[in-house]
Amino acid sequence: MKLTEISQYDARTGYVSEWRLHPSTLAAAEEAGIDSRSPSYLQEAHVRTAAMNRQRGVEEPTWLATAFDISGGADPDALEMAFRSWIDRHETLRSGFRESDGELLRFTLETERIALQRVEIGDFADQEELHRYLEDRFDESTDPLDWPCYLFVTVDHEEATTVYMAFDHTNVDGYSISLIAHEIQELYRAAAVGDRAQLLDVGSYVDFADAERARAAELDTDHEDVRRWREFVVGADWQLPAFPLDLGLAPQDSVIMPRQSGLCEWLLDPAEADDFEAACKEGGSNFFSGILAATGIAACELGDQDVYRTLVPFHTRSQPQWWASMGWYVGLAPVELPATQAGDFHAFATRARETVRSVKSMAEVPVARVCELLGVLLRPVFLVSYIDGRLVPGADRWDEWNAHAFGKVSRGDGVFMWINRTQDGVYVTARYPATELGHKNVLRFLARTGEILTTVAQDGDYVPLLAGPR
């Protein structure tokens, strides 16, 4: 499963239908009372940013989506039952927000209030036209200021029914997106034959968000992880790490962020990935720390830096009930790797492994709570993420299902890199400012990272082209 822009997906044309929440469900949401459970920090920040942008007249669609095939064509009744069962299964999809006197208040519907309607759109014979339709409808239907902020679409064609499911970020993270194909396939199978779906029991992200708030409220500036966050930013003029190369951005004299571009490229084939992992293990590290070492060496070589600084996302699915739950289970932790202590690749990777272990607990503290406690605004503008997608339930059938993931970010001045390992190898999806220099330097950075990865895979090591202690 690759994460790309939807225009890069080989969408098969056919008869399009939308699956929307029924008007009776929308009416029930309008009448729903207040749910006392709080939004997560990520949810609140996302919704408030969207509201602020709307006040400024700026629309910035940001969504995550997935597509997969149900072979032979889906039975509409069984598929509707699968969709309803899935919404029942994940409470966050039945929950939304209203603002009242500056406070973001939650409402949540019971499972029996969920009903769907199928709306037939018509036949699409042109792939480009289908791409435009899907992107436009996802832009319209994933507004975090509306509810629901998700949409399901099916395309019936000769070989199969392709299912598209798009969401605002308040409902899902990247890992959630990778779970969906397996869950809907299993719920559809069970509905079609009258069986019970064989899926893991899950908890509710709504409960997680409320518990996260309660835990965060107990923190103060003396907490070890808060102190470490302060130490990380105080020496950098209270700023989070930036991409190490010039992006060609003019000084911000406007609240409107620059347009973003994206790319998706393979870094290693399956055999190279195995060889890279073996080299990392032999050198005393692991695959993730090896990825960090490669990006860190590239940053120091190309950016002429003494220290590699970035942010790394960690999942916050710390208990079994969250493992297969839909939600935004992500925290950030800072990574700092001095180039002067690097030596060869393995010394850098070992240092990265030690650093990752030491900072992981910092991801349990929401960055927004850190900002509250320190009285500063910290805005992430550079991160490197890694997920081993081979471990996701159903990953061994992604090719069979033609499973794919999509993301859209319209504007931003940051560089965000998601490095994913699948059965087909290792690839990177990146978002960055759509400037000429931004495109050039992000490509340079990724090319050097790829060179380091393949050299380690082939030769077992890499000697950084660093000038030594400076």
From TrEMBL:
GO cellular component, one term: cytoplasm
Residues annotated as domain Condensation: 66-371
Domain of life: Bacteria
BP GO terms, sorted: amino acid activation for nonribosomal peptide biosynthetic process; lipid biosynthetic process; secondary metabolite biosynthetic process
Keywords from the named record: Acyltransferase, Transferase
Gene3D superfamilies per the UniProt record, alphabetical: Chloramphenicol acetyltransferase-like domain, Nonribosomal peptide synthetase, condensation domain
InterPro entries noted in UniProt: CAT-like_dom_sf, Condensation_dom
Pfam families: Condensation (PF00668)
SUPFAM superfamilies reported for this sequence: CoA-dependent acyltransferases
Keyword flag Cell cycle: no
MF GO annotations: acyltransferase activity; phosphopantetheine binding
PANTHER family associated with the record: FATTY ACID SYNTHASE, NONRIBOSOMAL PEPTIDE SYNTHETASE
Protein name per Swiss-Prot or TrEMBL: Acyltransferase papA2
Species for this entry: Actinopolyspora mortivallis
